[in-house]
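G., the chain you wanted modeled:
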Amino acid sequence: MVLLGKTFFDGIDGIDGIDGMDRIAVTMGDPTGVGPECLVKALALLLPNAGFQPVVIGDRRAWERALAITAVDLPWCAIDAETLAADASPWERGEPRVAVCTPTAPLSEADLGFGAPSRAACRATVQWIATAVRWALEGRVQAITTGPIHKANLHRSGFDFPGHTEYLQHLTGSDQVVMMLAGPRLKVSLVTIHEPLSRVPALLGREQVARTIRITAQALRRDLALSAPRIAVAGLNPHAGEGGKFGSEEREIIEPAVAALAGGAFQVSGPYPPDTVFYRAYQGEFDAVVAMYHDQGLIPLKLVHFDEAVNVTLGLPIIRTSVDHGTAYDIAGTGRARSRSMEEALKLAALMAYNRNHEPKP
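Predicted structure as tokens:
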């Protein structure tokens, strides 16, 4: 059994590595940021014993430039979409290697200025995501991992979605998706995502909270092989409302949502005061925390897992993980970007694919 490293395998019931050779499509993200550099560094560390077949989707010029910048020695070969569709395998030719596919028009050197993506580069970045999703829906790959994008630049080039998560929901036609940030000891799901804080109370509803809990539990059981996951739900207000003194959302929305799910195939409890529940989860009392809004969950997560955290989109018909950092334009091209988040995103995608596609179903 090939081990990918201990980070995401410790404490997972019955899983200590990966045997399968599932394909993971990896988008390089914004080609003018650190995404390509992080990607080549991560794959160089994971190969040849990665336990999965990486298919990079991006621009070949940006890929070769990242190899030169990082001085990484990484075996790779160029393939086209037809080769992947026909199931011809570049990995059957000998040593493990990375397959690189450019499904869009090649970008020019002028399109790839560090920190200054052209409209062509922005459009290509979006198309690479769409290609990865299509391949996953068609079964050509068993999971996708996405590199960092710069939302403001994409918006200026016509991208109409707040971020990756909402775009993936659109592409897959999913009713509801949940953003989870996962680290080795703390995993957090969000009821609301990219919303102004002033709008959060009005956006919360019993069914929305309950669906977030259910989707989180399903992912922990199916994709992370936790037979009886323990989920804690954070309150919205200080002290979880203090019996209504500091707000009514706990009594009117969150408590009924938790109560409706009691006695199921997973353990759910709360709402707990937000200032203590993340510490309790970090200490091992809970397997995941459901937070009410973006910063409530991500501040503690990034405090303890800044480099190794992984963004996971739950509720999709496909597996998607992502780095939990941005394009870092200020250091793009220097070779200094750390690749830990990309490494963990790839490893977690491989683990989820193994659990979903190869483990016996109950």
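Residues 1-20 have pLDDT under 50 and may be disordered.

Shout if anything looks off.
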